[in-house]
């Protein structure tokens, strides 16, 4: 029986892996729940940083199923986000970091003149195409309790007390002042921050 490919995108900065424990935990959870595999991978032993990777931020993309399928490396170039479009899909499932992103790509194509999408599922705020999100209210940041995929940076920020998890519906968006977009490659300090008026 063939398994669907999944992947991890790991940030490498100054030739050091970032938040590797969180990636390892998610990868091993996926291998257990999706593939029925009980052995635990240690990513620090599995991946070697090539000589051509400089001190600048790089993206390490590890695709896997029962075993490693491939590992790719590329220089990370941040995206500029100025405008976000809400899109709707009540059936989308991305509870594991699948290599097949066709459903997400289909939604992303609906962004029109926006730079990013915000996916609404069953009336609840989830994620953007590539990022988890948090909203600012009275000096506190809140992340939706209904992400499509709980990211590694999101887990780190929750554990660190930087953000709190709460139920956020589409109608709640206007009660916040700002939104931030973050993922494994975009830490909290560098996360794009927009007024919620820029969500359409």
Automatic annotation (TrEMBL):
Keyword set includes Zinc-finger: no
Record Pfam families: Aminotran_4
Listed InterPro entries: Aminotrans_IV, Aminotransferase-like, BCAT-like_C, BCAT-like_N
MF terms (GO), sorted A to Z: lyase activity
SUPFAM superfamilies, per the entry: D-aminoacid aminotransferase-like PLP-dependent enzymes
Protein name: 4-amino-4-deoxychorismate lyase
Record flagged with keyword Lyase: yes
Keywords tagged on the record: Lyase
Organism, scientific name: Dyadobacter koreensis
């Amino acid at each position: 029986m063939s398994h669907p490919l999944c992947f991890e995108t790991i940030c490498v900065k100054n030739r050091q892996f970032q938040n590797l424990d969180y990636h390892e935990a998610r990868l091993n959870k996926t291998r257990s729940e999706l593939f029925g595999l009980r052995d635990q991978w240690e990513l620090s032993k599995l991946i070697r940083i090539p000589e051509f990777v400089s001190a600048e931020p790089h993206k390490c993309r590890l695709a896997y199923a029962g075993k490693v399928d491939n590992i790719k490396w590329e220089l990370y170039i941040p995206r500029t986000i100025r405008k976000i479009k809400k899109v709707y899909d009540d059936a989308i499932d991305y509870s594991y970091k699948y290599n097949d992103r066709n459903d997400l790509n289909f939604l992303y194509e609906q962004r029109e003149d926006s730079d990013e999408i915000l996916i609404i599922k069953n009336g609840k705020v989830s994620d953007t195409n590539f990022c988890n999100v948090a909203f600012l209210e009275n000096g506190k940041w809140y992340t939706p309790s209904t992400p499509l995929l709980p990211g590694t940076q999101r887990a780190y920020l929750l554990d660190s007390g930087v953000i709190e998890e709460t139920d956020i519906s589409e109608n709640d968006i206007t009660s916040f002042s700002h939104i931030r977009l973050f993922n494994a490659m975009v830490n909290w300090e560098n996360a794009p921050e927009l007024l919620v008026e820029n969500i359409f």
